[in-house]
C-alpha cells in the first residue's frame, strides 16, 4: 500500500467532494498466484467437548478440518463457537476454510459495493490478505462477526453497546427493553443513570421519586431472567452514576450491602455460590457498577473540601458532603465486593472527538469502549507475537500494513451491519466508531526479555499502542478521501483535530528505552504526522479507532498466551492434546525469553525444568536474580504489584480512542487506604477508567487458603537430618506377609466400572494394589495388571503413597466425569479417582490437606468452621499460623492439622491453567466456574474466559 508520499498507504482523493477511485493495495503476507490455503498443511480432527462437572458430552463434531499448526484448544473453541449450521446436517460448517471464506468474502463484496477498491485486483489482494492473516492467527475480529457475518442472521458485527435513559418512565422502560434485546443476542451494554432524578427530589404529582438505584432492581432482574432463559454466560452490563448525583452514596454501597446479605444467607445454610440455587434472591449481581468522578470532585478530595450534590431536575444543591469521606466510601465498597469501579469523566471527555454532538457519559460493560449514547463499536485485535522477530526485533512495516488492512475491513463492516435498535444504528453509521486493539502484550514483553513492570516494558507497550492508533487514524483519513468522512465530522472537525494533536503530542513524549522501542516510536511519529496532515485535508472516516479489549475467546482462537494488555497469568499452563487429555507445560515464551537474555541451551533446559516442578523461577539453577522480574506474572510466587498494572495502563492510555479493559488485582491483605490510593493514582496518571479486585472479597467465589509451607515450619536441624537420611538411604523391599488385611472398593467413573483392591501391612500402611476394569485377557486388563504390579513394588520399596497421589491425581483422560463415590463426586480420569480414593483411605488428614483431598464430611465441616469463625470475628488465617486447630469430624488423623478452606463445589482436579496454578501455588484464584463446562475461568481484562470452551463472562 505505497504511494502518495504519506506513510506506507495510498488513497485517491475526492474530486469536488465526490468519491473518486479507491484504494490501491499491495501484498504484505501473501504471494501473487498462490492462495493462502495452498501454503499450509491441513488435517482432519474430531472435536468432542465434555462437561467437566458430570462428564457428559455436550458437543461432538468429527472430521473437522484445520491447519496442522492450530492448537487443539483453538480448533475446539472455533468449532463449537463459530461454525454455523445444525450439527449433523449438510448445512453445518466443517472446515476453517468455510468459516474464513464466509467472513472474508462478505467483507470483500461489501468493499466493492461501497467503492473502497480502485480495481478488482485490489479487491483480490484485500480478500487474500485478510484470509492469510485470519488463517495464520495474525488478528481476529470480535465474536459477533464470526457468529453473524455471511449467514442468514442479522449481520450484527458489534460486541459493545452504550444505551441512554432519561428521566421519564417511557425512557426507563425502553432501557429495559433495549438492554434485554442486546443480552438476548449475547452482547453487553452500559448506561449512565444520572439523568434520572434522585430519591430526594419530588415528582410533578408531589410524591417522592424512586431514584435510579430503585430502577436498577428491575433491570437487574431482567438481566438475570434472560441469563437463566438459556444463555451460557451471565448478562454483561455496566451501570454508571455521576459523583454529584444526590443518590451517589446509596449507589456506592448497594452491592456491598448485598454482599453482606449473601454472607448471612450462606451462614444460614443457603447455596450462595456463583450459580447456586439461592444466589438469584440477591439483587444487583448482574452488573458492574462505576462512579463517574469529575476533576472538580478529585480536587475537592485532594484539598479536603466539601462537595455539592445537585438535583437532576433543576440543578439545585440538594446536599453538601465531604469529598474525602465519599472517596473513602467508594474505596471501602470496592474493598468489600470489588464494586464500584471508577471512571474519570473529565479525562474521558478531554479526549472526546465529538463534543459538539454530546458528552461521553457511559461505557460498555468492560469499560474499554467509551463514546456517544446509543452507539456501538465493533472490535478486532492483533496478535503481537506474530510481529516478534527471531532476533528480538519488531516487524514494524508488517505491523503498519496489517493495521491498514484490519482497520479498512472494520470500516467496511459498518456499511452492511445490522444493529439491535434503530437509535444505535443511526449513531453508529453517523460516527463509525472502531476498536482495533491487540493481544499477547505480556507474552511479547517476556519473550523479548523485558519485565512487564519496568520502564523498558512500558516504553515498548506505549510505542506499539501509539503506532497502532496512529496508523489506524492515518488509514481513516485516507478512507475519508475515498468514501468520505463520517457524517458527524463537519460539526466536530475542530475538536477531532485537537484530539489528534493531543495523541501526536503524547507520542512525542515517549522516552523509548532500547533499540526496538526507538524504532517503533520513530515510525509512530511518522504515522501521526502524515495522518494529521491528511486529516486536515480529508477529515477522518471514523470518530474512534482503537481500544484495548479483553480478547477472551478470540485470544484463545489466536493461540495467545496472554489476553489484551495483561501479563502472563502464570509460567505453567494446561495444554490440550489431540485425542483428548491434557498436560502441564511451561509457557513457550519462557525459553524464548531465556535465550533473549543470553542463557545457553543447557541452562535454559534446567531453568524450564525448575519452573515445571515449582511453578516459579525463584532459585532456578543459573538464573540471575536481576532477571526474576522478567518472569513476574499476574498470579503466583512473584506476582506483579498493583501499581505495576496501573502504570502499564497509563503507558498505553494516551494512544487509545477509548480505554482499557483491565482489572487491577490486589492481594487479600490490601487495605482500604491502598485501594483509595490506587483510585487516586489512576486519576493522576491520566487513566479513563479503573477497577480493582481484592482476592477473596466475594462470597460467590470458591473459598481458598494457602497450603502450609512445611519448609518454613521445619527447624534447620531437622532439615539437615532429612538430607542426611536421603544421602545414606538404600531401598530395601519389604514384602507383605502371606496373610494381609485388604479391602475392595467398586467404583464407576464416567460410566466405566471397576474394582480396586488395596492390601496393607499388619502394622498399617498400604503395600499392594490391584485394579480390574475389563475382561481377563483383554488389553486393558493386561495394562491395569502391569500398572498394579509396578505401583505395588514401588510401595514395597518405600515410595511414599503421597508421592503417587501427587503425581496421578489431576491426570485427565477419558473416561472422566461423575463417580458413584460420595467423597469424590468428580474425577478427571480413572487414575485420578483411584489415587484420591487411596489417599482418603490410607493418608493422614494433614498430608491430605496439603494435597487438597478431603471427604465430603470434612468439606462440610470446613465450611461450617469458616462461617462460625467469621461470625465470631476470628481471623482463621492468623489462627492457623499461631495455634493448632482440630481436624474436622471424620478426618483420618492429625488433631493438630489446620483445615484449609475449600469450596464445597470446587472441582477436584485441574481442568484449566487457573486450576493448575492453584495446585502449583497452593493459593486459590477468585475466578468463576464456567457455566458451560465447569472449569475455572481465566482473567481476560475485566472479564473472564474459559480455556475449555471459550465462553466469556463479558461482552467480547
Fold and architecture overview:
- It is a single chain.
- The protein has 956 residues and is an alpha/beta fold.
- Among the domains are: 571-632, no CATH class; 710-926, no CATH class.
- It has 30 helices and 25 strands.
- The strands form eight sheets. Strands 3, 4, 5, 6, 7, 10, 13, 14, 17 and 18 form a ten-stranded mixed beta sheet that branches. Strands 19-20-21 form a three-stranded antiparallel beta sheet. A two-stranded antiparallel ribbon has the order 1-2.
- Strand 19 (742-749) and strand 20 (752-760) form a beta hairpin.
- Helix 13 (441-447) runs parallel beside helix 18 (589-596) and helix 25 (801-808) runs antiparallel to helix 26 (830-842).
- The longest helix is centred in the middle third of the chain and has 29 residues, at 455-483.
- The chain is globular, with a radius of gyration of 29 Å.
- The two termini are 30 Å apart.
- Residues 737-840 form the TSCPD domain.
- Residues 47-137 form the Ribonucleotide reductase class II vitamin B12-dependent N-terminal domain.
- Residues 158-693 form the Ribonucleotide reductase large subunit C-terminal domain.
Summarize the helices and strands and which ones pair or pack.
Blueprint: E1 42-50, E2 57-67, H1 72-81, H2 96-113, H3 120-135, E3 139-141, H4 143-148, E4 160-162, H5 169-184, E5 188-192, H6 212-228, E6 237-242, H7 248-267, E7 288-293, H8 295-303, E8 306-310, E9 317-322, H9 323-337, E10 341-344, H10 345-350, E11 362-363, E12 370-371, E13 375-383, H11 396-416, H12 422-431, E14 434-439, H13 441-447, H14 455-483, H15 489-508, H16 515-538, H17 552-557, E15 572-576, E16 582-586, H18 589-596, H19 601-614, H20 642-652, E17 663-666, H21 672-684, E18 689-694, H22 710-713, H23 716-728, E19 742-749, E20 752-760, E21 766-772, H24 779-796, H25 801-808, E22 817-821, E23 824-827, H26 830-842, H27 845-851, H28 856-871, H29 876-882, H30 913-921, E24 938-940, E25 943-945
Parallel strand pairs: 4-5, 5-6, 6-7, 7-10, 13-14, 17-18
Antiparallel strand pairs: 1-2, 3-13, 4-13, 8-9, 10-18, 11-12, 15-16, 19-20, 20-21, 22-23, 24-25
